[in-house]
Amino acid sequence: MFTGIIEATGTVKAIETSGSNRHFDIESPISSELKVDQSVSHNGVCLTVTAVGENNHRVTAVEETLRKSSLGHLKPGAAVNLERCMKSDGRFDGHIVQGHVDSVGEVTRREERDGSWLFTFRFPAEFSKFMVEKGSVTINGISLTCFNVGRTEFTVTIIPYTYEHTTMKNLNPGDLVNLEFDVVGKYVQRILTLSGRL
């Protein structure tokens, strides 16, 4: 489980395709602290570390992950947000994040607002039932609060710290992002559906 509070950003150094899988070699400040078989969020996708070097590590994405996330669009040199799983004795600073991407979204607008930034994202209408005004959403692994929630779009505000310490500064209209919707909302939706109340 993750919290959506990014620890560091890494850089994709190399990508290798093996059958339907894709291996990513990532260079980052936390790579040397990782261990093989550890779960780490990469742009919001929970991936297992398969190898660790001095300043780099390797993870593998299977076909299903590549199909449901934006990882398949990464190229060498791309930056990725990284977060290790939450410690049981740590503070819960974000919200419950599983690292299971629900959908790919698209940046439709970016606007600077005198020290902060507004980003608007388009997402598939089928997921609108999980979005609520001032609710939580995970964008490329970052826990954020959404507003101006519509059937296919929502907006978030990015403060300077988040802008400088994550990949948000690299996003422009047309770019794709990984979206994970609030797991609590998904469970409520499932319970109500099974009980016949929806």
UniProtKB/TrEMBL annotation:
UniProt-listed InterPro entries: ATP_synth_asu-like_sf, Lumazine-bd, Lumazine-bd_dom, Riboflavin_synthase-like_b-brl
Keywords: Repeat, Riboflavin biosynthesis, Transferase
Name listed for the protein in its UniProt record: Riboflavin synthase
Enzyme Commission numbers on file: 2.5.1.9
Pathway in which this enzyme or protein is active: Cofactor biosynthesis; riboflavin biosynthesis; riboflavin from 2-hydroxy-3-oxobutyl phosphate and 5-amino-6-(D-ribitylamino)uracil: step 2/2
Species the sequence originates in: Fulvivirga sedimenti
Lumazine-binding repeats: 1-95, 96-192
Catalyzed chemical reaction(s): 2 6,7-dimethyl-8-(1-D-ribityl)lumazine + H(+) = 5-amino-6-(D-ribitylamino)uracil + riboflavin
Start and end residues of each Lumazine-binding domain: 1-95, 96-192
GO terms assigned for molecular function: riboflavin synthase activity
GO biological process per UniProt: riboflavin biosynthetic process
